[in-house]
Specification:
By secondary structure, the protein is mostly helical. The protein is built from 6 helices and no strands. The protein is 71% helix and 0% strand. Helix 5 crosses helix 6.
């Protein structure tokens, strides 16, 4: 079979597992995410456990990656090489955090939540895609 089909299948399977995990953990509910961010109010620590689990899984994945010569369906690993903290990184992180706090979603859970068909989720994803497109068009002119 074609390598592209395997890559697509692996990406699809990973996305399904990720979406199922988000749903199972309750992270598709923006109120739960916003309760985690409300440390002075009705704080809900459940997101901390989800994030901790993600860190453990990612750590194990990186350790396994270091033992492999190349990924199963590609010639090289595609890992970030730039390690500096600069203004675009800080500004982008701040914008991400504001969107996460206001909307109660980050991109993965927002896309997974589309299956629920809630107008708020659809509006968030549309706004997210518009923002990503604007960034792409404006940033590509600068570089």
């Amino acid at each position: 079979m074609n390598r592209d089909v395997y890559q697509f299948g692996a990406a699809l399977a990973s996305g399904i597992v990720f979406g199922f995990g988000l749903s199972l953990s309750g992270m598709l509910n923006p109120a739960r995410v916003q309760s985690f961010l409300d440390i002075l109010g009705s704080w809900d620590p459940s997101l901390a456990f989800v994030l901790g689990g993600a860190v453990v899984v990612a750590f194990i994945g990186v350790q396994v990656m270091k033992l492999m010569r190349h990924p199963a369906f590609d010639d090289t690993f595609h890992v970030p090489t730039i390690r500096r903290i600069d203004a675009p990184l800080v500004i982008g992180s701040a914008v991400f955090g504001l969107g996460w706090g206001i909307g109660g979603f980050c991109p993965g859970p927002a896309v997974a939540s589309l299956a629920l068909g809630l107008p708020r989720t659809v509006l968030f994803v549309i706004a997210m895609l518009v923002g990503m497109t604007l960034h792409d068009r404006l940033w590509s002119r600068r570089t």
